[in-house]
Amino acid sequence: MKQLRPAILLTLFFVVLTGIAFPVVVWAVGRVAFPSQAAGSLIQDAKGNVVGSSLLGQTFTKPEYFHPRPSAAGSGYDAANSSGTNLGPTSDKLINGIKDDPATKDVDETYLGFGDLAKAYREENGLAADAMIPADAATRSASGLDPEISPANAELQVARVAKARGLGADRVRQLVEEHTSGRTLGIFGEPRVNVLQLNLALDGLR
After folding, report:
1. What single-letter DSSP state applies at residue 21?
2. H-type helices in 34-189, by residue range?
3. Which of 6, 100, 158, 170 is the most buried if burial means most Cβ atoms within 10 Å?
4. CB neighbours (10 Å) of residue 94?
């Protein structure tokens, strides 16, 4: 009993400390110091409805919206099926794609390669067949949930969005600049544009 009693008490003590007290403290600090991040970085529209998260990408296909980078997560930006392509830079499948991809099991689905994605991107944005495009315009992100695109990617979409909305290209370009974030702490990462926030701002111009 002399050995059993302190063992049981210590076990209960650490269960309460690490299983209850510590999580509660971390949760409370997060809610107070970082309320938006702790709640999932949710984004609301003009009516106050939650339309997404600044951390998760969404599919946009209409010409009046900026389009995100391609996604390999499920049918696109599926948070329950986050994944990248896991293909090396010399992979024939990554470059040229594959028809009736066996990875899709019972569903007949074509896996679009870089060439297919680049061609589609150029066509939808009215670019020349040999126009240079940024890498994120035709490559999938590691998570498949990337909510942001590069400023260069957004710039190539300005003309299409402006035409579809009947706006001046300079007005749309100004909006892109307003929603461009710089490097984290000035040194980490690259400048980026959150697609969902930018598209909501476009809708707000009405």
Report:
1. I
2. 35-38, 92-96, 114-124, 151-165, 169-178
3. 158
4. 19
